[in-house]
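Hi there,

I know you've been waiting on this one. I reran it after we fixed the sequence typo, so this is the corrected version. Both the input and the resulting structure follow.
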Amino acid sequence: MSRKLKYTLMITIAVILVALGVMGCTSRVPARGWAGVSAINNTLIFTTMTGRIYSVNAADNAILGNPVKLEITSSGGFSCIPSCGTPAATPIAVYASPATGGDLAIFGGFDGRVYAYKMVNNQLGEKYYWRFPTGQSLASIVGGVVVSGDTAFVASIDGTISAIDIAKESEAANSLSIPQDSTILKWSVDLGNKLWATPVVDGDTLYIGCFDKKMYALNTADGSVKWTFEASGAISSAPIIDNNTLYFGGYDRTFYAVSIATHQVVWKFPADATTADAPDNWFWSKALLQNGVIYAPNLDGKVYAIDAASGTLNRAYSFKSDTFTKPAVAASPVLVGDKVVIGVTNLAKNTCKIFALDAAAGATRELASFTEGLNAQLFAFNGKAYLHTTKDNFYSIDPVNGATLKITLTTSTN
């Protein structure tokens, strides 16, 4: 690895660690999450960096009720600052969009707890419906929660995956009793290394990438390991599952197609060191599969369009320009109608641009530009793309005509 590339990777890691608030007490600031937008029925859910969760009517962008206050109140302020005797409210950072199912929105908090909020009159209730655990918290949660049936699965950054019984949690919440954590926890396994990825469940199998360079396939019933695949670098992106194949990228600057049946590589991109247009940085976020083509975002500022069947590169879409010199695609592309929408930011996180990709023409069209960065995943809903910027602003963008709307989140109880 060249000295320049090593330096770039060190800077990237430092930026990520600072953003996650895991650099220790010397930073003396709470973590600020970058959760993307989500929705239940026609209600959009916006989670701010300051510990507020807003319910917004998707039809007219009207705020529904008061925001949820997701925060910790303590007598001594932040845990690494000596107590001054004054109660302090610290926002709980959320780094992934909530899992939604039925009338629940379920969040993984950086405080190491899972919070479920129930919809009441088309908005989230101001008090959580339940949280897990009620006792000692898990390690911090960066990836999202995934729900399958009556179980919520969550990965903590210490390498632990927990399966939570949603049915029992809801029974306890309805009876206003406080359950024992042991009766709610179906199982917990420790994979032994950092987990920043969001799990993906397919049938009776949970898939998750780990910092030990492995993609794990776990039995959803008991957490036992079915099989593993070892890449050449850490994995923080969730896989795509299609045609009995897992598709995912890693920090080794390689994108993989792995057979679920044989647990072996079907193909990888680049195929070897001499491959043209080989990536220069990490595959950080989840890719998008559309019409047999994988759109894989990379921190080198490109999206790689790869044929899903063969692993052949169709095209590398670059977003570098004279005025946008250090782009990175940290957010997953989304499909809005028939358009692939891509969010690109720069390392300084003071500029981001949104593009629509025309696969047939092999071209991209800039939809919008903002003087703020982008970490959060894009969200597609009702013909629009939604984004949450590093200045804690929310926008909707129409990929057909580029119409952009800033959604103002103000209430009397902010």
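Quick highlight: The chain is about 10% helix and 40% strand.

Best,
R. S.
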